[in-house]
Amino acid sequence: MQALVIAAHGSHLNAESSTPTFDHADTIRRSGAFDEVRESFWKEEPHFREALRTLESDEVYLVPLFVSEGYFTEQVIPREFRLDEWDVDQWDSDGTGATHTTLTATDTDQTVHYCGPVGTHDAMSDVIVQRAESVTGDPEVGEGFGLAVVGHGTERNENSAKAIEYHADNIRERGRFDEVKALYMDEDPEVDDVTDFFESDDVVVVPLFIADGYHTQEDIPEDMGLTDDYRTGWETPAEVDGHRIWYSGAVGTEPLLADVVLERAADAGADVRDAIERIREETGGERVTADD
């Protein structure tokens, strides 16, 4: 038997934080790709430490529902899942290149294929583009539009910015949007000044966050000038400094993200290609490359 475990952060303060994780797990469960599918969290139940013990499967694909490589993917998850053989060098990554490594969970003796985070997989670029389609209601959105990919940014984890730049570069190479920029909350260039960085009249803003919360629903809308008070909401699109801003909210709420989870497992050897095709068809996703 084979199982999939999705490892996410969760929150004691925001009840909606775990919603995307459960939604994507349900989508994958319906696809029949694995004998068992489990959600697990750092700040909610079921907790990381208990997840493997709830499974009958002796082979597990462990996929972090995180944006970037860093503290959680390199220290917390391996420790809490008791992957004692883990060494970050096994990913052979420069900050965005983690794929997978195969380890043994010491207390359950299960084989665990530990995958890189969803946020740095190439397929996440497709999710960002589909998020732009969803918020504009236009499956052909691109010409005449700018696209801002927004991340947290932090001096504590340089890989946080690398993930944002990686996808901005990927999407820019496709030539679909007139302009593509990487912006940040806590680094320059800052999302507060989004209209300073675009000539396009229409700009789609997609935050590379897994779930909607304080940053995506309060900070970013107010910082961009969409609203003076997030509690009163904002229009979509909203007029800001002569531009129309189409704000999408967290990319992780896009249904196509379930595909990225499966792509991670497939890269680690899981036979899930049929399920990937079904999920892409179900969610309207299309695999795109720069050459397309």
From TrEMBL:
GO terms for molecular function: lyase activity; metal ion binding. InterPro entries: CbiX-like (IPR002762), Sirohydro_Cobaltochel/CbiX (IPR050963). One of its GO terms (biological process) is cobalamin biosynthetic process. It comes from the Archaea. SUPFAM superfamilies: Chelatase. Keywords: Cobalamin biosynthesis, Cobalt, Lyase, Metal-binding. The keyword Metal-binding applies. This is Sirohydrochlorin cobaltochelatase. It comes from Halorientalis pallida. The lineage of its organism: Archaea, Methanobacteriati, Methanobacteriota, Stenosarchaea group, Halobacteria.
